[in-house]
Amino acid sequence: MASPIDGPRIAPKNRIAKQLVVFLHGYGADGSDLIEIGKQWQSILPDAAFASPHAPHPCAQAPNGRQWFSLSMRNPEELWQGVVDARPSLDAFLDAELARLQLDDSRLVIVGFSQGTMMALHTGLRRKRAPAAVLGYSGMLVGPEHLNEATARDRLGQPPAVFLVHGNEDELIPVESLFVATEELCKVNIPSQWHLSVGIGHGIDAAGLMHGGLFVASSLGVKLPPGLMAG
Fold it and tell me: What pLDDT is recorded for position 60?
């Protein structure tokens, strides 16, 4: 049985939720780490509810943090087993939030950072119905050899939109992971966009945050006022 997860939320600026954006934090952090992005995106997503669940397990290397799965060896087999084991808890959370807000997957965007990106890609591409989009910062695609399982499609038979952002000086997850992911997704006809944050390490810069927010809005069909978030 999946371990229940929960975390901080931000209610829609316009009170009634028409979209749901879920943030998945990185290894050793918790849901509070990314939820503030929701406040920054409220200007372009006033009808969106934001949620940022804490990962299901305590993190041995960060006593006050959480982990989606262990990173003791960081080899491909451990990563694959990790995302597989953590997925049921995340799926259950997404299902419950969508039901609570009376929304379906077409109104959902999953946003991950680092280990959270691994979970966002793994889970988002395997939902029973495709989310509107998956946005990943500073992460990687785990188990590309298993992409035959990535069968999530919308009512028109299309996969979720995918946008990946990575710093070219990332010291933890090399930038090459960005290009491996986009190439592997292309092989199974899942198109993706990407943005390279020059001079950025393992983190999110202002440009990456802006491009990500615009991608989320576009994927949800939100019309933006001319000039908003420009510059």
Answer: 81
